[in-house]
Amino acid sequence: MTMENPLITPSNTPAAAPKIRHFRQALDTAFEKALAEGEYGDEEAQVLNENFGEFVPDLHVAAHRFARRKMTPVFDLPGALTLLGQTSVVTAEQNMATFKRPFSKDEPVVCPSAEQIQECAAQNKAGTHKWILVYASALSFREQHSILGTDNRRKPNYYSGADWFLKPNYKEVGDSKPDAGYYLLDMTPRWNLTNWQGQGDNITALGEDYERADERVFSQAVLAHQKATGNRLFDNQYHWGHILDSHGYRVCVKLNLGGLNVGHGAPSFSDYDNLFVCVARKSRNRALIA
Question: N or C: which terminal CB in the chain sees fewer CB atoms within 10 Å?
């Protein structure tokens, strides 16, 4: 294995060429050990630091990072874009452009399998579903609200008329966060005029690979899609989510002309024709973002 370390160049070190060459060989050996055994011992780190520490002060961290990237699969975003089409994908870059939250290429995130993406693409082609693949950051409603604000002249935005979820007695709503990663959401509104449990029963009947979409992921999906395309998904229709607030109500969210509106409804509601559910596929895998 050959490896060029960007921290070692003729311009930033006066060391002689043989010492640089020996350092690179020692670093290669450490990385090979990390790849083979999944770990990098303190003894090796001490030897490298004693002999070559002036070049790279964090050899231990560098070896772990290198090994993790080599041993963890990379999410096949190009393949997903080919199958689903660019308009049906919200990438990590688009999420970052919307919410100003950088994503890491060194830490694995949740993601669907290639088989799930293929199945969803086939259902889209058949016209029975509207699956999109979206990247969501680990952002709470409070953080999303703070980043985007409520100015309706600067879209995407949160609706200025609803801030109940930011109150201290609703921390379970305002401050909880989803796992960062890629998710498959079906943007076909389903099962209005059905109570929360009834919607859940319908999702269960689809199979164990399906679930109710996380409302914090859903909100990022529709807002980032609006930022990228100017269009609103699930337009003016509530998605009834998971979160149970302190009054026993389930959180629901919708995007309309006024912005992203966070509401909540009693699980027994079954007579509200604008209260739907967004179905998701379970993201069970973990991978790196290239």
Answer: N
